[in-house]
């Protein structure tokens, strides 16, 4: 497959995953109150939460610094994918890197725009209605300060740690407890596929001068 086709595939993967991610988030934001939960199965709930942090609800440092770091990270990923395409990377490697890029970009969209275009989501236990879409600048926060929307919750099973277990002995636990979104899934699946199938393509040549490809043979 030639490099032009690989570039088109990378763009299509990123756009398609971004559209799916943002569609899910907007539907949840406009139809659910904060903390509201919809049980699909015992092991799968739609549970609306928001967070200021990284993937899987983690938080690290200030919100502004995190948003700027995300933007720089996505810029680097776009540059790296383009570089690998020019140097003849495998199509599969380009696809999984595009998945990671799309996931990172999906959460950036929340930070960039949601604070500007949505009213603030209020707790479900207070009987609050869902957030509303408003004109630019009339939302709950300034640009780069919007909160990330999460909704997928998989409480696959629950149990109690045995009394002899260090630190958490006798305490209840749920597996799997984090609430996450589609963008987080893109990052996780992309990274998993990369390390399983394409770890040899991460050959430490990020800043090396790329060599022109002489033969665009089918892979």
UniProtKB/TrEMBL annotation:
Cellular localisation: Cell membrane
Classification via Pfam families: Peptidase_A8
Keywords recorded for this protein, A-Z: Aspartyl protease, Cell membrane, Hydrolase, Membrane, Protease, Transmembrane, Transmembrane helix
Record-listed E.C. numbers: 3.4.23.36
GO biological process, one term: proteolysis
Domain of life: Bacteria
Catalytic function, reaction form: Release of signal peptides from bacterial membrane prolipoproteins. Hydrolyzes -Xaa-Yaa-Zaa-|-(S,diacylglyceryl)Cys-, in which Xaa is hydrophobic (preferably Leu), and Yaa (Ala or Ser) and Zaa (Gly or Ala) have small, neutral side chains
GO molecular-function term, one example from the UniProt record: aspartic-type endopeptidase activity
InterPro entries: Peptidase_A8 (IPR001872)
UniProt GO cellular component terms: plasma membrane
Function text: This protein specifically catalyzes the removal of signal peptides from prolipoproteins.
Protein name, entry field: Lipoprotein signal peptidase
Taxonomic path: Bacteria, Pseudomonadati, Bacteroidota, Bacteroidia, Bacteroidales
